[in-house]
Design goal:
Blueprint: E1 4-11, H1 17-27, E2 32-40, E3 51-53, H2 56-67, E4 74-77, H3 83-95, E5 102-104, E6 109-110, E7 113-114, H4 123-132, E8 135-136, H5 140-147, H6 157-170, E9 177-180, E10 188-194, E11 200-206, H7 215-228, H8 233-249, H9 261-270, H10 272-275
Parallel strand pairs: 1-2, 1-4, 4-5, 5-8
Antiparallel strand pairs: 2-3, 6-7, 9-10, 10-11
Length: about 280
């Protein structure tokens, strides 16, 4: 099988972002390839960083792969440094095999506002990327921004279902909302998606008193691994809930980053039979 291409930032230290994707996807039995969007001295949650954006090289790497007819079995994207990078990657994907799965974590915002360094100018490019995706994993803020919805003061399941419908109308083939807190499920963190007959499905697990860097990266890496092992979305979301709960339970309260090592071991055991055939 061809490698899975990871498109994400690359921190020199700190077990987040592409470092998590590399570890989890490898544990699931797949080869990986890299396209860094920015190289950092360490992840931004640890304060000021040395930052090196991949500019002209980004397009040159994509062009080189095309010239060499180099193929991938899937793409998983996370942090893009610029809208221009997104546009270049979308152009690349559209020229390649359209049956290759594309898993998109549209990292740009949370808690009702853009992350530092992002603004409305990134939205047209991000929407275009999402329209190419096999499945997209936004949080509520990111989904609201993409469909032009105001971020609500209170989130209920009626709003979530409407938001998912609007994502579908925008062109997203499948959306899995992550990290959702609704008034119907206090003290819980939920995943939400629409079934094939457009019914709202939610899977819930206990909310931690703390948040940890890398949780979103772990989610997209786990989903990619399970998707490539051809689990159904219903089964994937149930496993995501279990595996993320495990990671949180094994993370020290004084630690800033999610402890994904126990999950990596679990993933390796879970897919052990399939791994032998890859």
């Amino acid at each position: 099988m061809n490698p899975i291409l990871i498109v994400n930032d690359l921190p020199g230290s700190g077990q987040v972002a592409g470092m998590i994707a590399q570890s989890i996807i490898t544990a699931a039995g797949f080869k990986t390839a890299w396209l860094p969007t920015v190289v950092l001295s360490h992840h931004t949650g640890n304060g000021p960083v040395i930052r090196h954006e991949i500019k002209d090289d980004f397009q040159q790497i994509l062009a080189h792969w095309q010239q060499q007819a180099y193929s991938f079995s899937a793409y998983v994207t996370g942090y893009f440094a610029t809208a221009n990078q997104i546009d270049q990657f979308v152009d690349y994907v559209k020229k390649e095999n359209s049956t290759v799965p594309l898993i998109v974590d549209p990292i740009m915002a949370d808690h009702g506002k853009f992350y530092q360094g992002f603004n409305e100018q990134i939205l047209p490019s991000m929407r275009h990327l999402v329209q190419q995706a096999t499945i997209v994993l936004p949080n509520v803020t990111e989904a609201c921004l993409m469909v032009g919805e105001v971020y609500p003061q209170q989130i209920d399941e009626v709003f979530i279902q409407q938001l998912l419908f609007k994502m579908k109308q925008m062109g997203a083939k499948q959306t899995l909302l992550t990290g959702v807190e609704t008034i119907e499920h206090p003290g819980k963190i939920s995943f939400y998606y629409l079934s094939s007959d457009e019914q709202l499905i939610g899977v819930h697990h206990a909310k931690s008193n703390r948040s940890y860097f890398g949780t979103g990266d772990l989610t997209s890496a786990l989903l990619t691994s399970a998707w490539m092992h051809q689990l159904t979305l219903d089964n994937i979301v149930l496993k995501l809930s279990q595996w993320l709960s495990l990671a949180v339970s094994k993370t020290d309260v004084n630690q800033k980053e999610i402890n994904y090592i126990p999950v990596m071991r679990t993933v390796m055991d879970f897919f052990s039979e399939e791994v032998e055939s890859i």
